Amino acid sequence: MATITKKELIDRIAEQTQAKRVVVKKIIQSFLDEIIVELSNNNRLEFRDFGVFETRTRASRVAQNPKTLERVQVPAKRTIKFKMGRLMKQELAKKISLEQPVE
Questions:
Q1: How many Å apart are CA 70 and CA 63, to the nearest integer?
Q2: 14 vs 3: CA distance, rounded Å
Q3: Cβ of 50: how many Cβ atoms within 10 Å?
Q4: Nearest partner of 78 among 56, 59, 61, judged by Cα
Q5: Across the 103 residues of the chain, what is the mean pLDDT of every consecutive 10-residue run?
Q6: Which domains are present in the chain?
Q7: What distance in Å separates the CA atoms of residue 61 and residue 66, rounded to the nearest whole number?
């Protein structure tokens, strides 16, 4: 599995669209900043066929340090949940069926 960085994504999009790299970088960064703002405001982000981002609150709990076996209180926190959209599900299903060996 390869890791794709934001820089590589910017380079690909700039090449595909023939747009200047600095313009693409600004657009992508603005897009990511807006996602952060909306999620921090507890808003749900829905991108048709791609997926949905939502915030969830995880309840506080008592955990245990595996090394010392000491009990530790873990406070409640907000996390992000992502649910795949239709096109992403289809594309991932295609990739799995192509990777499976035929017997």
A1: 8
A2: 19
A3: 14
A4: 56
A5: 94 96 97 96 94 95 92 94 93 75 57
A6: 1-43 (no CATH), 45-103 (4.10.520.10)
A7: 16
